[in-house]
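User: What would this chain look like folded?
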Amino acid sequence: MVKKLKAMAEKKSAAGAGLFDSALANSVRESAKEIWLAGMGAFAKAQAEGKQVFEALVKEGNSLQKKTQGAAEERFSEVTSKMTSMADEVTAKAGQHWDKLETIFEQRTAKALKKLGVPTAKDVQALVDRVDALSAQVAGRAKASAKTAAPKKRAPAKTAAKRAPRKSAA
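Assistant: Here's the prediction, encoded as structure tokens.
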């Protein structure tokens, strides 16, 4: 008897499963059909309104691009001015440091040259001035001695000039 009950229960469950399977299959078919029809309707609507939607999207894209480009140009000008001011500051600081470095180099070079006994530009200029003064003194003395000795020497110079043509003629 137990065997008969088990067999009947199995038949009822198999029959119930078949009913359930056919109901589930019908439900799935109906859902798939509705999804297919919805997709077809969306496609038809997209074809009909696609051109208008595309044009609207292009207009929105243009306006967004103009806004973005304006903001970018504004930011670019701000960044450019900041970079220019920073570059000016860096240039000024570098110039100050360069001047300090140049001064230190000149001082150390002058110190080394002094230790070696090399005369400075001031020393050379002082010597040039002294030579010029001595040259002026020598020139002044030469003029003074030439004035006093000039009349005595002029007579023999004329005789020497007269003799020179005679020698060349002879």
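The chain has a mean pLDDT of 79. If you want, I can go into more detail on any region.
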